[in-house]
Design a protein that fits this description.
By secondary structure, this protein is mostly helical. The chain has two domains: 219 residues, no CATH class; 85 residues, no CATH class. It is built from 16 helices and two strands. Helix 4 packs parallel to helix 6. It is globular, with a radius of gyration of 22 Å. It starts with a helix and ends with a helix. It is a multi-pass membrane protein.
């Protein structure tokens, strides 16, 4: 009897909490997208600033890397996960963004960072329009092959124009640190990580708003059935080009953030392996969700780190140690897809659902 009364008392105590939580969740979802997404981005930025305040320079670099990878994968998410266009050349847009940023810093040092970012987005979007218009009639493996050729051929321009693009050594430059008003308050690495995340979160707000609006519905209609979308009056070619434009802008901005964070732009950083890694990270994180971009970026940065630490702890040979992070990532990708086809985001959503039902 005592146990039964305790159970009834516990149930009465938890019902109001569940009701309040459900009410807050409904109120949050009822907010307009233009209010909800910037508030979420502001909370994420505050969390990043708090996190970098207790980490060192090396960890700040990794946190910043998660930021620009997340933006690149989110742009790929919009192109593949929402509009259904397969691209194997997303690293090429990061190449354009990184070299545009490097050239601007070297030749126009008076330009502020935000202006460099805007110019980078404009150049990347222009490249996206050209690629999107040229491949608008291609589908499936033909589209994948065309974008793969872009990823293979573009880095070779650095060897063709060594005086401008630095050849195989690339371009190195110095970036400005924190403003004088913040000297002694934040370190240079903290400032760079915060700048990268602020840029990435602003980009994510744009991508999430696009996805929640009319254009996002058109893209999903194309992904589900292109013929039906055309019969419904959706301009198929124009929507595909716009998807490429937005995705290229995100990739270019991510490349600019990478160049800003590392202070270099080298062709070896933008090989085909980068494009394939972004695609693998997108699948691992989860197709069809912006959260998938975050989990994919975390895996892309930290799985490699854990693989390197494991190889170091086992004192493996150089060849084995260099390939262990790739094997580590591949095994994780296979396991997650076999068990949770919706990726890491699907796994965490399912676990969260089990926890809520178990309360």
């Amino acid at each position: 009897m005592v146990s039964l009364r305790n159970h009834e008392s516990t149930a009465r105590d938890t019902r109001p909490r569940r009701g309040r939580a459900a009410g807050l969740a409904e109120r949050w979802r009822a907010l307009p997208a233009l209010v909800r997404f910037p508030l979420a981005a502001l909370a994420a930025f505050a969390a990043v600033v708090a996190l970098t305040s207790v980490t060192g320079p090396a960890e700040d670099l990794r946190i910043g890397s998660v930021g620009y990878y997340m933006l690149a994968i989110a742009g790929l998410q919009l192109l593949i996960g929402y509009s259904g266009q397969v691209s194997l050349g997303h690293g090429a847009f990061m190449f354009i963004g990184a070299y545009t940023m490097a050239l601007l810093v070297l030749h126009q040092p008076a330009f502020p960072l935000w202006l460099n970012m805007l110019i980078t987005v404009a150049v990347s979007c222009a490249a996206g329009v050209l690629v999107g218009a040229a491949t608008a009639r291609l589908h499936g493996p033909y589209l994948a092959g065309a974008t793969l050729a872009l990823a293979v051929g573009l880095p070779a321009l650095t060897v063709r124009f060594p005086e401008l693009l630095g050849g195989s050594n690339g371009l190195a430059f110095s970036v400005r640190g924190a403003p004088p008003a913040l000297a002694g308050v934040v370190t240079g690495s903290q400032w760079q990580a915060a700048a990268v995340w602020l840029t990435a979160l602003l980009g994510l707000v744009v991508l999430a708003t696009v996805n929640a609006g009319r254009l996002g519905r058109r893209m999903r209609a194309l992904r589900d059935d292109e013929s039906a979308a055309a019969l419904a009056g959706i301009p198929v070619g124009r929507t595909k080009v716009v998807a490429f434009l937005i995705s290229a802008g995100s990739g270019g901005l991510a490349g600019a953030c990478q160049a800003y964070l590392l202070g270099t732009a080298t062709p070896s950083s933008f090989t085909v392996a980068l494009s394939l890694s972004l695609l693998a990270a997108l699948v691992l994180g989860g197709l069809g969700s912006m959260w998938g971009a975050f989990w994919g970026a975390v895996a892309l940065v930290y799985v490699e780190l854990w693989g390197q630490e494991l190889a170091h702890s086992l004192s493996l040979g150089t060849n084995v140690a260099n390939n262990l992070p790739i094997v580590f990532f591949g095994v994780l990708l296979i396991l997650v897809i076999l068990i949770w086809p919706q990726g890491l985001h699907g796994m965490f959503s399912r676990l969260a659902g089990l926890v809520r039902r178990g309360r």
